[in-house]
């Protein structure tokens, strides 16, 4: 059993580096994902290698795509039985079944992989449609336990070719009393299969279930931290072109004495620092293009308050200990929730208070919504002063759909 830990994460993994099938990469592109989230970084390789996994991961971490992408890749690239069910994803609720089926539809848009959501509560028509798909074979079935058993008991479900079993939100399934149903479903499945288990928590009974189902699993534990409570977080929904003028305005307000501005790209660090210097603000830059000596010098100047604004890439977001930072500005939305927490954690150290502002550009709304999901609550949205002109509405789902619509 291996133990992968988030803290070991150093590099940003691009989907293209995983060698995923071209058609899946197109689907990822259409969904607007750029880099793999921490869960995805740790989960995808062992799944691609055919290993069983048990992963502690919460909703909002990108766990659905973490298992769907390698699953789709294996369905497309490994021999599989046409006209049979190849993968079964069991989930606790019909909402989750629908949500996962939608993700499959999006990510597999450029492939011929077929899928169906099978869940209770519908009318007779939906049962008939499910029966038809389960009889004629469908690549992926996403189902709730009770409804699946109703079909299995009728004897027409084609399961001989099943190679993948996913249990998502397994702790909720146990809490909802589905333990026996799961055991029953498993008696219908071929023994030779890859098993993937996801659960937000890992109580003892989960360990017991996993021992029954999984074979020598890779264990993945994504410990999600929460930002300190004394940080006041605010986000501003803006157009990309409004970012620089708004940041200048925030910095001129003089309410803050020591500020770090984070940018995801070093090019943005350079451009923004030049703009701030031009506006006679005492700013300096830190990124990987600078030699070690200059970096140390600029950090020293910042500590000694020769400069009071540091514009930096994420190299400064972890482990750097500078006291008294009262404001962190995210020029752009960080790649994932952990990066967000690390960035804003630069302020309010040692029990002082701090403020964290995030500028959300038009294309970053979905990314920020994912972070909010991970934080468990929306971040307060601040009003942008009228002088900067109209700003976009915060509608992350729509922003998502818009980028999706381009493909059609
Ligand atoms: P989940 O944890 O699976 O519920 O995913 C939460 C949200 O993150 C969903 O809206 C996904 O579409 C989104 N998401 C998943 N993977 C990525 C990624 N690599 N980059 C950006 N967003 C993602």
| Domain unit count | 2
Structural class comes to alpha/beta
The largest sheet has its strands arranged as 1-8-2-7-6-3-5-4
- What are the distinct ligands in this entry? adenosine monophosphate
Q: Give the beta-strand count.
A: 14
Instruction: Give the radius of gyration.
Output: 24 Å
Question: Can you describe this structure?
Answer:
The structure is a single chain. This protein has 408 residues and is an alpha/beta fold. It folds into two domains: 2-222, Rossmann fold (3-Layer(aba) Sandwich), CATH 3.40.50.300; 231-404, Rossmann fold, CATH 3.40.50. Helix content is 40%, strand content 15%. An eight-stranded parallel beta sheet has the order 1-8-2-7-6-3-5-4, sandwiched between helices. Helix 13 (337-344) links the parallel strand 13 and strand 14 (354-360). Helix 3 (63-77) crosses helix 4 (94-107), helix 6 packs parallel to helix 8 and helix 14 crosses helix 15. The chain is elongated, with a radius of gyration of 24 Å. Residues 1-10 and 398-408 have low confidence and may be disordered. The site of adenosine monophosphate has 14 residues, from helix 3 and helix 14.
């Amino acid at each position: 059993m291996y133990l992968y830990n988030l803290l070991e994460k150093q590099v940003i993994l691009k989907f293209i580096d995983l060698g995923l099938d071209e058609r899946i990469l197109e689907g990822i592109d259409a969904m607007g994902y750029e880099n793999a989230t921490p869960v995805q970084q740790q989960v995808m390789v062992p799944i691609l290698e055919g290993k069983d996994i048990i992963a502690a991961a919460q909703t909002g971490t990108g766990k659905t795509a973490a298992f769907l992408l390698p699953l789709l890749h294996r369905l497309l690239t490994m021999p599989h039985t046409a006209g049979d069910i190849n993968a079964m994803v069991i989930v606790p609720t019909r909402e989750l079944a629908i949500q996962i089926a939608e993700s499959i539809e999006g990510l597999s848009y450029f492939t011929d992989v077929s899928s169906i959501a099978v869940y209770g509560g519908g009318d007779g028509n939906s049962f008939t449609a499910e029966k038809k798909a389960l009889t004629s074979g469908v690549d992926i079935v996403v189902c709730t336990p009770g409804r699946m058993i109703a079909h299995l008991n009728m004897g027409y479900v084609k399961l001989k070719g099943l190679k993948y079993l996913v249990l998502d939100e397994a702790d909720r399934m146990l809490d909802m009393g589905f333990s026996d149903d799961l055991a029953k479903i498993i008696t219908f499945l071929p023994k030779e299969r890859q098993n993937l288990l996801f659960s937000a928590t890992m109580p003892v009974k989960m360990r017991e279930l996993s021992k029954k189902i999984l074979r020598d699993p890779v264990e993945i534990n994504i410990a999600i931290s929460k930002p300190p409570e004394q940080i006041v977080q605010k986000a501003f929904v803006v157009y990309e072109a409004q970012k620089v003028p708004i940041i200048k305005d925030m910095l001129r307000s003089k309410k803050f004495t020591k500020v770090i501005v984070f940018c995801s790209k070093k090019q943005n660090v350079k451009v923004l620092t030049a703009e701030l210097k031009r506006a006679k603000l005492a700013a300096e830059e830190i990124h990987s293009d600078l030699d070690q000596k200059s970096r140390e010098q600029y950090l020293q100047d910042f500590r000694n308050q020769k400069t009071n604004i540091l514009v930096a890439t994420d190299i400064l977001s972890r482990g750097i200990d500078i006291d008294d930072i009262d404001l962190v500005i995210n020029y752009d939305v960080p790649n994932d929730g952990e990066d967000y927490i690390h960035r804003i954690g630069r302020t309010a150290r040692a029990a002082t208070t701090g403020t964290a502002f995030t500028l959300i550009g038009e294309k970053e709304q979905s990314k920020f919504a994912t972070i909010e999901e991970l934080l468990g609550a929306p971040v307060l949205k601040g009003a942008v002063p009228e002088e900067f002109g109209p700003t976009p509405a915060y509608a992350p789902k729509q922003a998502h759909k818009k980028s999706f619509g381009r493909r059609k």
